[in-house]
DNA sequence: CCTGTGATCAGCT
DNA sequence: GCTGATCACAGGC
């Protein structure tokens, strides 16, 4: 039996928590599934929204751990992070992909799409499929509409560089459920095939 | 398989 | 004014 995560479960480095969240189950108003891809961001990280310090947008990252940080991406999508904290403020885990298990019909409706593989394969898609809105920014993850259930022990996790950033591009803070077909992109492939000259 | 581009806007310089 | 923790779709091979 899994256990409901508590704010104390988000005390630790963003990378540790991002890894531990692989295999956890996230539900928003009963809709969601198994988290299969995450990325870590923290204050010392040039790629992080929190790197330059607190602003109105990133305020949730500097607030209590175990809460949501929701931001607008490219003017279009809502993306969901879990706020965590080790020593300082400004750390979070981006939820990048989910294997849909709960409320498939609701997700298909919201996404206008049948293929379960594409319902939640990417942070913007997760936001749309789970009905993430800006009003959830700062909300506790252990209270409605959120529910986060701990992963089973010994989940196999793969690691690689993060996606879609231009700074700290080699930091290996992207985590994935090994072998999952619900990732936003495959893990661990070389960025370019080696030339066999 | 791959690359290119439009959508659309908040935050920052 | 430009950049972005993105996505969908078009076109070429």
TrEMBL record:
Protein name in UniProt: Putative 3-methyladenine DNA glycosylase
PANTHER family: DNA-3-METHYLADENINE GLYCOSYLASE (PTHR10429:SF0)
UniProt GO MF annotations: alkylbase DNA N-glycosylase activity; DNA binding
Pfam families attached to this UniProt entry: Pur_DNA_glyco
InterPro entries for the chain: Formyl_transferase-like_C_sf, MPG, MPG_sf
Native source organism of the sequence: Ramlibacter aurantiacus
Entry annotated with the keyword Hydrolase: yes
Taxonomy of the source species: Bacteria, Pseudomonadati, Pseudomonadota, Betaproteobacteria, Burkholderiales
Family from the record: Belongs to the DNA glycosylase MPG family.
Example of a GO biological process term: base-excision repair
Keywords: DNA damage, DNA repair, Glycosidase, Hydrolase
Keyword Acyltransferase: no
Enzyme class: hydrolase
Cross-referenced NCBIfam families: 3mg, PRK00802.1-3
CDD domains the UniProt entry points to: AAG
The protein's Enzyme Commission number: 3.2.2.-
């Amino acid at each position: 039996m899994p256990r409901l995560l508590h704010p104390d479960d988000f005390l630790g480095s963003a990378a540790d928590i991002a890894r531990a969240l692989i295999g956890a189950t996230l539900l928003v108003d009963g809709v969601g599934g198994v988290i299969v891809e995450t990325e870590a961001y923290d204050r010392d990280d040039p790629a992080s929204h929190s790197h330059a310090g607190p602003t109105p947008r990133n305020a949730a990252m500097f607030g209590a751990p175990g809460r949501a940080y929701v931001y607008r991406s490219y003017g279009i999508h809502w993306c969901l992070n879990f706020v965590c904290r080790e020593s300082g403020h400004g750390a979070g885990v981006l939820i990048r992909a989910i294997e849909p298990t709960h409320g498939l019909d609701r997700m298909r409706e919201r996404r206008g799409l049948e293929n379960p593989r594409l319902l939640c394969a990417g942070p913007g898609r997760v936001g749309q499929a789970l009905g993430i809105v800006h009003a959830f920014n700062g909300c506790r993850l252990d209270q409605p509409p959120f529910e986060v259930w701990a992963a089973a022990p010994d989940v196999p996790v793969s690691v690689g560089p993060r996606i879609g950033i231009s700074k700290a591009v080699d930091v290996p803070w992207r985590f994935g459920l090994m072998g999952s077909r619900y990732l936003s992109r495959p893990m661990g492939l070389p960025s370019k095939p080696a030339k066999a000259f």
